[in-house]
C-alpha cells in the first residue's frame, strides 16, 4: 500500500515571472460536447494519431530521451512519496525521473506502452479522455505534448477534466501543448495545413462542426500548394491556421518498414519519399494560440491556475485542485 508522506515543500513557480493564483472562470461554452460524444474517438485521431504512433513507436522512442527542464523541475519539486500519473507517457522518459516518487503511466499506443513495460515501468493502455484511475488517486499528474493530438475542443477540455479528477485536493497538474507561435518559424513551413474538406467540418478554433452528409476522404494538401480548394489562402488565414499534419519520416532502414509501414503505404496511411529515403506518416496536430490553453480550462470549478508560461515553443499551465 502506498502511503503519502506529508508535503515537505511547496511547489515552486516554473516561469521566470510568477503569476498570481487566480480562480478559473466557471462559465462553460454552450458548444461543449456531451460526455459520450467527446469519449468517442474521431476517425482523424484513429488514423493520424493512434495508427501512426503504433507504426512509428520504436523509431519515435529512439528520438525521445531529452527531458524538458521545466518538466523535470516540476517533478523534482514534488514531495517524497507522491504518486505521479503521466497521461500520454509515450516511451516513458519522465517515468521514474524523481526516484522519491511513485510513477504510473498510460498511453493510447500499445507499442509505446510495451516499450515502457520493457523498461520496468508501471504502465497501461488508456485514453486521455477516460483515465482508468479512481478520483483523487494521485498527488500530481502530467500531460506532456498530448492535448494537441485531440481534434475537438470538447475532447481537449474533457482530457483536462480527467487530469484534475484523478489527483487529490491540493494536487498539481502540469499540461504542455505545442504552440502555433513556434520559435523556429521555418518548422511551420514543413507542416501540411488541413485542406478545406477538413476545415469545413470545424467551427471556431478547433471545434468540430456536425459532419456533413456523405463521407469525406481524409487527405492533406501537397506541401507545394498555396491554395485550399479553389480559394487562395490569404496571409490572415495562414496566421489563423491551427490544424496541421506534421510529418514523421521513418527511414527505410528501420526494421518496421518491412512490416507495418509497407501495409500503411498500400492502404494510403503513409507515403514513400525516395529523396529522403523514408516512409512519411502524417500526425494530426491542433497547435495552440496564446491564451488558448488558459481558456480551455475555463469551466473547471475545482481548479486554479498557479503558473502559466511559454517554454521551447510550448504553452504550459500548472493547475491546483481545490475541491
UniProtKB/TrEMBL annotation:
Record region (Disordered): 1-39
Record-linked InterPro entries: AlkB_tRNA_MeTrf/Diox, Methyltransf_11, SAM-dependent_MTases_sf
Compositionally biased residues, Low complexity: 29-39
GO biological process, one term: tRNA methylation
Polar residues bias (residue ranges): 19-28
Comp. bias intervals (Basic residues): 1-10
Keywords associated with the record: Methyltransferase, Transferase
UniProt GO cellular component terms: cytoplasm; nucleus
GO MF: S-adenosylmethionine-dependent methyltransferase activity; tRNA (5-carboxymethyluridine(34)-5-O)-methyltransferase activity; tRNA binding
All residue ranges annotated as the Methyltransferase type domain in the record: 85-175
Pfam families assigned: Methyltransf_11 (PF08241)
Protein name as catalogued: Methyltransferase type 11 domain-containing protein
Organism field: Ambrosia artemisiifolia (Common ragweed)
